[in-house]
Queue: 3 jobs
Job 1
Amino acid sequence: MATSEEISFRFYSELSRSDRRLVDAWRALGNDYCTALLNSGVLGTTRRSHPANRERTDHEKVEEFLARQQAYNDAGRRRRQAAEHEASHGVTARELGLDVGRLTISNDGSGHCQFETTSRANTAVICVAPVVWGSSPWSTTFPLDGDRGCTEDLRRLAACTDTFGARTAWRHAVEILKAHRADVHALADELVKLGSVVP
Ligand SMILES: [Zn+2]
């Protein structure tokens, strides 16, 4: 009586070349003809893919997963950074005694903070706040991308003060943010969660 290996080999030899190649691939992994025939699926209607392809597919799946994870982290990081940026404007304006309106953020790292019109000196402190925050160890994203997204703020700062005034504003912003860093984080937490907040 023929052994299962002999029967399997007969099946194998009657297969098409492409099917034999599939079985060969399973055999190359150390399987006997019987197991290789069954695993390759050439005997059934549903065919399993070449083991090399399966490995690559699994590998690709992992890569895709990691890429998604990274993209999520990057988006989460940008969102957090945007939230702390706007929160630093908001808390500074509030501590200067101003009415603060709506704060908003987007995933691309942009955002906005509304506050009532005030003196040039106060505006300078509010403008410089996220630059101070981003370059401080209180910032979650410190020390990377410290002043990312502050170009517009720096432009406004330059428009409302000179170098001396900017230094004064910087020191004032440091005082406020250091004393109220927990408030900045609390407001940023809400912004990350809701995307838009009226404090
Ligand atoms: Zn800003």
Job 2
Amino acid sequence: MGGGVHRAVDLETGAQGMTRGSNTLGGVAQHFTLLAVRCARCERRGRLRINHLLKEHGPDIPMPDLRQRLAQDCPKREAALYERCDVFFPEIGAN
Ligand SMILES: [Zn+2]
């Protein structure tokens, strides 16, 4: 106990992030109503309603985590690592 000083560093890094606010689903929801989703490995592409995603995953889920969850819906999710599906969000630069 008693070691709280280094915390200040974390706060500073968090505050300076230019993409702060768009790294979570809740942040993205402030700018978009539909989330464009594409997969780097298969033909999958589309748009998901952010309202629906919020209900399912909550506003605090980080976008990288959401990518992984969405990739679970892909046909190649169980392929070998080097050819496994990898979902990304082309309209959001923060991932
Ligand atoms: Zn895919």
Job 3
Amino acid sequence: MKKSEEVKIKYCPKCRTPNLDMYAASITGAYYCRKCGYIGTVVIEKSFNKPKSSSPPQHE
Ligand SMILES: [Zn+2]
């Protein structure tokens, strides 16, 4: 049984929004930002402890 689930969220280093998609990640390992169009492997990664009965905030 796990104590708490850790969720990692990746942020765009340019506009700092957590809207990164995988961009051909299996080939390039890069991420794509839907907001500013940034594509690259350098991202800001932050870890959160996920509450048990609610999902992490997501931007649609
Ligand atoms: Zn961006």
